[in-house]
Each structure stands twice: as structure tokens, then as C-alpha cells.
């Protein structure tokens, strides 16, 4: 336990961004205090990537990030690249592998990433205080941080790294937003992103009946499209394609799903009509889709005519449903299931170089608390590393 009360920088939040900022500032010889209300650091790192942490992506161009200002993230991302984090992981002797779409995972466990960052912080002299809820933050000639344990720490720089609202049971709070409000910084409304979608009538019964069925799809909203896996759930849709598109939808927006990417359902069914007219329509469709899905999309009774006696119009309508299924979610599974929070501290209030407030000198916001939201696939950690590095270099 530290008896010091004055530091060069205080960082609140020992997640991905806070650990990176603390290590970076400590390595520059700064005296750093890192506080967290959780008993352990990096709760989200530990559960990420199914316990193997998708710690970055091979490439992290700025167009993989959503923000009110799409240019904001460029500076930090260009000064701390995926290759920089890979070099850190390699120096720590952590084995990793690449999955689809450039996603990099630990061979072993996400615990290795937390251990690597904690060792980096310790070697750099960072002082930790876990299990330390914050009572108040104020700014006089310096920032004063009072804990609920009635301790008080001071520093000329304060880095807020408390993340967003997703998964409250892991310790997520709206702390960053309260600090923004206290210091009059503008906010973009925080909302769940990378989140499963929920549906109502008329689509829900079909989705519920197919719960657990996976398929590869293209999900499209406006000009944005993702070709990835989708899975039906008892409340609607999930899987990477759906999580990705969810980040682009506002309440009431619709999107389309192509259940047969890269193929032409109409031509395929019409070819079957010509060559094997006695086949049932649902059987013809099941040659291209998982059987449960084909049967749900083309329900038939015993009287249904074979494909040879089905009109081209009916076949065309089925093909349209398969390849251009228009869906309007009723809502999302909310922050309890969202992988990230979109929105947050408005980037107009921050320096893209240092992540510091333009109006409150020394007050920095990093990671998920900021209105920069990555795609699924290691991009959110890359933003945490890059923004944490930018602030750690600046304090
Ligand atoms: P993060 O949430 O990591 O850390 C915030 C810290 O602040 C926590 O330690 C918390 O306890 C602390 N804190 C909060 N409120 C506080 C308060 N009031 N007082 C004191 N401390 C407080 N991304 C990715 O790139 N690859 C992946 O594989 C995954 N996988 C994944 C799985 C799941 C289930 C989730 C929920 C999320 C992911 N993510 C992901 C997203 C990724 O985890 C996320 O974007 C980063 O952890 C954000 O890092 P931050 O440091 O900004 O916040």
C-alpha cells in the first residue's frame, strides 16, 4: 500500500486502456497511480475472445472504427499500430495465432495479456490500488481524487480509463460520463453496440424455431455490409455478422440479410425446376441452406405442388426472401450483452494527439469511454492500446 499522495499522473480504470497508459507513462519515468474499484485488473481482457483474447487485428485502418468524427482515431492509431502490440506480445513470449479476417488470439489464455501488462506496469514503477471505489474528483491547482476509503491523491494529470457501460456485472459504470458532465465536456449518447438484436412479430416465431442454427450471411445496412456467420436465438439474431451490423443501426432502422451469399437463389431454384421438376420446393432450397432454415422459409403441407408446378413468381418471391430478407429489430439485448458501448465522450472535446480535454488541461479520456467504437475482431483492444499509449506519452 502506498503512503505517497502526489503523483505525476493518476489513472482511473485498470482495463486495457488504463494498463497501457500506466505502463507507457511509467516507462517514461512518470510516477503513476492506477486505481480501480474492481479487486483485479483487466476483467474484460480475461473474458475476451472466449478466454483467448482477440488482442488486435493484423490491420487496423481508421475505417474499421465508428465515431462522430471518423478522422479522430487516425493519429493515435498511426502512432501505435497492431505491429507494436504484436512486438510486445512476442517479447513476452506469448504464443498467438491468426484466425479469420486478421484476428489475432493467444494460443494459451487471455490471462497472459493481463500478466504481461501488469509486469510492464510493475517494472515501470506504477503504483496500483485495487478494490478502491472513487468518492470524488476535483480540480484545484491539480486534480484531487478522493477514495471512499477517505484517502486523497493529487496529480497534475488525470486519465479516465473506466470504459463504457457494457457488461455491468464485470464492473462497468458510467463514471467517465459523470466526469465529463462534471467538467462540462460534450457527450454522444452511449448505446449498446456489437450486440445481439431482438425481434417481434412477424419474424420472431421463425427465429425462435431456428434457435441455435448457424449460417453464413451478408448483413447490409446502407453502404455497410458484413459477410460473416449469423445465428438464430430465442429472442432474435446474433453471431458476428449481426453484432457488426448492430453498431450501425439506430432504433427503428431496418437492414437486410442475404442467406445465400455469392449465389443466385432464383437461378438455382429455376434450374432445379427445369431439371428435376418432381422435387419439393423446400427440398430444392435445402440443397443450398441448412435444412431447418430451408424448411422454415418454405413451409409446405402435403398438398404443396412440386417445384415443376410452382410458378416462377412464387419461386422468385422465395428467392427474394432468401437473398434480401428485410428485417427491423424491435431492440437489442442491451448493455448486459453488448460487447462494447458506442458513443461516449465527444471527440470534438479532445486532442487526437494526447486524448486530453481541450478545455480542462491535464484531463484525458481513453479507450471505450471515448466516442470511438471498433468493429468486432480485435479493433476495440487496438483502440484501447493506441489511445492509452497516446495519453501515456503525453502526461
Ligand atoms: P475496460 O472496460 O476494459 O476497463 C475499464 C476499467 O475501469 C475496469 O477495470 C473497471 O473495473 C474500471 N472501472 C469502471 N468504473 C469504475 C469506477 N467507477 N471506479 C473505478 N474503476 C472503474 N475487444 C477486442 O478487441 N477483442 C476481443 O476479443 C473482445 N472481446 C470482448 C468480449 C466481451 C464479452 C466483451 C464485453 C468485450 C470484448 N471486447 C473485445 C471489447 C473490449 O473488451 C473493450 O473494448 C475494452 O476492454 C475497452 O477497454 P477500456 O480500458 O476502455 O475499458
Automatic annotation (TrEMBL):
Annotated RsdA/BaiN/AoA(So)-like insert domain ranges read 191-340
> Which stretches make up the RsdA/BaiN/AoA(So)-like Rossmann fold-like domain?
8-393
A Pfam family this protein belongs to?
Answer: HI0933_like
Which ranges of the sequence are coiled-coil? none
Q: Decide whether keyword Flavoprotein is in the record.
A: yes
Does the keyword Ribosomal protein belong to this entry?
Answer: no
Please give the cofactor(s) recorded in the UniProt entry for this protein: FAD
Q: Which UniProt keywords apply?
A: FAD, Flavoprotein
SUPFAM superfamilies registered for this protein in UniProt: FAD/NAD(P)-binding domain, HI0933 insert domain-like
Provide the protein name. NAD(P)/FAD-dependent oxidoreductase
Instruction: Name the source organism.
Output: Acidisoma silvae
Organism classification, top ranks?
Bacteria, Pseudomonadati, Pseudomonadota, Alphaproteobacteria, Acetobacterales
Amino acid at each position: 500500500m502506498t503512503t505517497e499522495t502526489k503523483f505525476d499522473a493518476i489513472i482511473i480504470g485498470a482495463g486495457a486502456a488504463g494498463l497501457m497508459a500506466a505502463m507507457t507513462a511509467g516507462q517514461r519515468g512518470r510516477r503513476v497511480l492506477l486505481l480501480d474499484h474492481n479487486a483485479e485488473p483487466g476483467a474484460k481482457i480475461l473474458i475476451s475472445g472466449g478466454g483467448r483474447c482477440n488482442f488486435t487485428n493484423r490491420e487496423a485502418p481508421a475505417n474499421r472504427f465508428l465515431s462522430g468524427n471518423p478522422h479522430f482515431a487516425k493519429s493515435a492509431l498511426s502512432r501505435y499500430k497492431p505491429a507494436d502490440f504484436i512486438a510486445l506480445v512476442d517479447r513476452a513470449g506469448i504464443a498467438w495465432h491468426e484466425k479469420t479476417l486478421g484476428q489475432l488470439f493467444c494460443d494459451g489464455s487471455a490471462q497472459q495479456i493481463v500478466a504481461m501488462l501488469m509486469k510492464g506496469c510493475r517494472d515501470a514503477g506504477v503504483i496500483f490500488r485495487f478494490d478502491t471505489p472513487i468518492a470524488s474528483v476535483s480540480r484545484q491547482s491539480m486534480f484531487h481524487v478522493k477514495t471512499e476509503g477517505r484517502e486523497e491523491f493529487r496529480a497534475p494529470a488525470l486519465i479516465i480509463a473506466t470504459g463504457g457501460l457494457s457488461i455491468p456485472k464485470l464492473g462497468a459504470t458510467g463514471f467517465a460520463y459523470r466526469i465529463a458532465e462534471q467538467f462540462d465536456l460534450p457527450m454522444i449518447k452511449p448505446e449498446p453496440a456489437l450486440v445481439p438484436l431482438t425481434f417481434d412479430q412477424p419474424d420472431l416465431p421463425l427465429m425462435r424455431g431456428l434457435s441455435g442454427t448457424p449460417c453464413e450471411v451478408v448483413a447490409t445496412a446502407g453502404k455497410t455490409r458484413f459477410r460473416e456467420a449469423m445465428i438464430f436465438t430465442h429472442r432474435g439474431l446474433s453471431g458476428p455478422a449481426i453484432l457488426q451490423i448492430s453498431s450501425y443501426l439506430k432504433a427503428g432502422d431496418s437492414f437486410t440479410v442475404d442467406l445465400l451469399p455469392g449465389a443466385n437463389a432464383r437461378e438455382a431454384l429455376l434450374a432445379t425446376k427445369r431439371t428435376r421438376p418432381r422435387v419439393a420446393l423446400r427440398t430444392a432450397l435445402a440443397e443450398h441452406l441448412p435444412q431447418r432454415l430451408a424448411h422454415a422459409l418454405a413451409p409446405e403441407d402435403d398438398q404443396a405442388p412440386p417445384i415443376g408446378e410452382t410458378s416462377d413468381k412464387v419461386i422468385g418471391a422465395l428467392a427474394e426472401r432468401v437473398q434480401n430478407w428485410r428485417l427491423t429489430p424491435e431492440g437489442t439485448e442491451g448493455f448486459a450483452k453488448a460487447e462494447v458501448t458506442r458513443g461516449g465522450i465527444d471527440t470534438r472535446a479532445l486532442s487526437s494527439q494526447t486524448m486530453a480535454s481541450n478545455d480542462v488541461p491535464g484531463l484525458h479520456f481513453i479507450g471505450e469511454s471515448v466516442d470511438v467504437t471498433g468493429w468486432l475482431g480485435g479493433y476495440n483492444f487496438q483502440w484501447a492500446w493506441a489511445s492509452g499509449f497516446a495519453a501515456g506519452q503525453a502526461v
